[in-house]
Amino acid sequence: MKRRFRLTRSNDIKRVRRVGKSYAHPLVVLVLSFTPETSTRIAIITGKSIGGAVERNRVRRRMRAICASFLPSMKKGFQAVLIGRAPSGGATFEELEQSVENVFRRANLIQNTNE
């Protein structure tokens, strides 16, 4: 996922987590806040409950790749925080992809249904 689509400042992430609506799945949690701008930005958070640094970085890389694949078909004008839960460390790429797609669809972010 390109840098311009990433939400990087801690104040922005805290604001989204405070005012946003959350969508939970056993592997990930999506916190979503709509903005009047047309920009789309996503932050990815992995905590120590996932495992060591290697496992956290692997989950983060996978989630970035999954988000990048969904970006062309997503609506514009939102900021989101995608949080990896503890079981996501042992999940396969396909399981993680299905869980992220699940929360994106429940949040009504994916526009077309032919994927």
Task: Give a concise summary.
The protein has 115 residues and is of the alpha+beta class.
Polypeptide structure, described:
The protein has helices at residues 10-19, 53-70, 93-106, and strands at residues 21-24, 28-34, 40-46, 78-84. Helices cover 37% and strands 22% of the residues. The relative contact order is 0.24. It is an alpha+beta fold. The chain contains 3 helices and 4 strands. Strands 1-2-4-3 form a 4-stranded mixed β-sheet, sandwiched between helices. A hairpin with a 3-residue loop joins strand 1 (21-24) and strand 2 (28-34).
Task: Note the topology.
Layout: H1 10-19, E1 21-24, E2 28-34, E3 40-46, H2 53-70, E4 78-84, H3 93-106
Parallel strand pairs: 3-4
Antiparallel strand pairs: 1-2, 2-4
Helix pairs in contact: 2-3
Structural class: alpha+beta
Sketch the major β-sheet.
4 strands, mixed
Beta content comes to 15-25%
Rg estimate, integer Å? 13 Å
The string of secondary-structure elements, in order, is: HEEEHEH
Side-by-side strand order of the widest sheet:
1-2-4-3
